[in-house]
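Design request, tokens follow.
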């Protein structure tokens, strides 16, 4: 991976705007360049960021921070957002729904994922192993 020392995280703050999703994809892509699971990591990061923008205070003129932790045989991504009244959860989306599949995708593709926090701030994280 093009990340320098394994374990040294890359961190960047973004405005809470939907237009920033492409910038997050580029940032994460650079941080995981050469990683065998790069495509999955980039996809999952964009899903978690989209949720932060749509469902938390970050999308209401706030910001969010993305942290990418490259480690031996795995990568961890954290999205720190402005928080919300309700915790993130997997929804069942019908086949015709245009939204509601993001965390289900995270559940399917990530090795592990979770969240910490509340209405004052939250971090949603996931890890992808490739060994």
């Amino acid at each position: 991976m093009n990340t320098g020392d394994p374990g040294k995280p890359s961190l960047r703050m973004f405005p809470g705007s939907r237009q920033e999703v492409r910038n997050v994809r580029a940032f994460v892509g650079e941080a995981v360049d050469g990683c065998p699971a790069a495509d999955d990591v980039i996809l999952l990061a964009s899903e978690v960021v989209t949720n932060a923008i749509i469902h938390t205070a970050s999308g209401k003129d706030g910001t969010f921070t993305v942290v990418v932790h490259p480690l031996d045989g795995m990568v961890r991504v954290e999205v720190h957002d402005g928080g919300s009244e309700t915790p993130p959860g997997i929804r069942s989306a019908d086949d015709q729904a245009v939204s509601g599949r993001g965390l289900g995708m995270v559940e399917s593709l990530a090795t592990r994922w979770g969240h910490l926090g509340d209405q004052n701030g939250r971090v949603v994280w996931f890890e992808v192993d490739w060994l």
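Comment from the thread starter after seeing the answer: thanks! Strands lie at 10-15, 63-71, 74-81, 112-118, 121-129.
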